[in-house]
Amino acid sequence: MGVRAILSGALLATGVGCVAVDAGACGFIDYRPRVDVPVAARPKPKPKVIPAADLVALADQRIEQERLADAASLVLQAYPHLATDAIDRSPLELHAKRILALAIVRTRPATAAVTERTGVNRVAPSGSVAWSISTLRAIDASRHGDPVAQADLGEALVSDPTTEAEGLALLDDLASRDLIGSPHAYAALARLHAGKGEQAAARADLARCQTMTRQPSTVCKPADARVASND
Hints:
- By secondary structure, this protein is mainly alpha-helical.
- The protein folds into 2 domains: 49-143, no CATH class; 147-231.
- 61% of the residues lie in helices and 0% in strands.
- It has 13 helices and no strands.
- The chain has helices at residues 3-13, 52-64, 68-78, 91-105, 112-118, 120-123, 128-143, 147-157, 164-176, 183-195, 199-212, 216-219, 221-229.
């Protein structure tokens, strides 16, 4: 008996006389109504939630790239109430505070470029630069003499005329012990020394700034201009 005869016999035995993909071809009609859901009514996929740790890590990269407004925006995305949260909420949030404070300080005197984009002026009503100094001072106090925290604080202090002398003393002390690892801190020192007519010190500060960064034209240029104007 051939294969076709065997299959035909099996179909007849089971009462199935038609095999087709389309049920209507065998005389069966699916009367169930088909409902097309409009695209607008379909549930939208939930936006992917990026963990705070990933956002802060990205902000670290952006501030190293001198993309200060982007760095500030990322940490505020991670912690929308960053400027008003307690300083000791978590080590990660404390690090985010440092990034935001430095982003604000390093855009001086054009701080508005950061505050308008990030909204930090709304969450730090006391003033963004004052908030930055206060935050970096608290971080320095918690680090018990860590040179990195002290250099950050010194950089912030010299951005405000009312605390400039304190910042200069702090940065000068760190520089005398070769404990400054920030090109921004050396750029700040160069500006201050040039302003006081201390050209040799200003040039030395500027040289250190230029060797510490891949973007000397961005980081050291303001100091460079100040030194040149005092030659």
